[in-house]
Specification:
alpha+beta; YefM-like fold; three-stranded mixed β-sheet; elongated
């Protein structure tokens, strides 16, 4: 991806056609500003998809790490102890909800 460009909302509205072509065909990202503050980015769709995949992969990595930590913290409990705790929790919820 080439160097990003910065454009105000007003400039974007007046020149959307050429800006769109630069983003879509030239892989030029734009930073959109309002009151001189960056507020959004206009990026090629392929880059958007790449970021979505990265975000999804990061989420799964975090889930895997969480499951691993849970397994480590609970490794000293037997399956029978876990089953008993689950049954106790079910009975407690049913009693509280009147089921």
């Amino acid at each position: 991806m080439t160097v990003k460009k910065i454009v105000t909302i007003g400039e974007l509205m007046r020149g959307i056609g050429p800006i769109f072509e630069e983003v879509a065909d030239g892989n030029t990202p734009y930073i959109l500003t309002r009151d001189s503050q960056p507020k959004a980015a206009l990026i090629p769709y392929a880059e958007y998809e790449r970021l979505q995949r990265l975000q999804s992969n990061e989420l799964w990595r975090e889930v895997d790490e969480l499951l691993e930590r849970m397994a480590q913290r609970n490794s000293h409990f037997s399956e029978d102890e876990v089953a008993a705790d689950i049954e106790d929790a079910i009975r407690e919820v049913r009693a509280e909800s009147g089921i």
